Fold:
Amino acid sequence: WGFSLNEPSVYLTFDDGPNPTITPWVLDELKEHGIKATFFCVGDNVRKYPELYQRLLEEGHRVGSHTMYHSNSSKTNYKDYLKSYQQAEEYIESDLFRPPYGRLSYFKQKEILKTKKIIMWTWLAYDFDLSISIDLILKKAKRQINSGDIIVLHDNEKVKERVKILLPQIISVIQEKGLGFRVIE
Structure:
């Protein structure tokens, strides 16, 4: 799922936002480092926080859809899932899609691929898994992150305190490896 690049780089991505308790902080942190990222937004959050979504766009970040209500493909029937996918289209203008939980059945995938690129990831930070220590996540980052990786963090209420610790350190790890940052085209 990674991409070959002329310059050694990674793709930093965020799922679940925008969220007023963490997304502004993430944007400030990215701006401080001159980094552009790709945000897979939940349509309902874009509906509730349009000014935050606008800020993502104005600051040069790329956006993609993450369904209207963070729908889980494994637990949502075909019709309802596609309805959530299509409702998000009213709020998120993009040709990129990432399924919540990284799950998408064959038939749902086939339908979505008619109009979108489905973007998964190669390195998941596990920022949402409170049983995994921040130290372990950072050790794995140092060992595992490579050029071309698509890295996933989250900008939601549940992970806000962990992301404030993890993001600056993951940025440092990536920079120490001599890697740059790109948005998904």
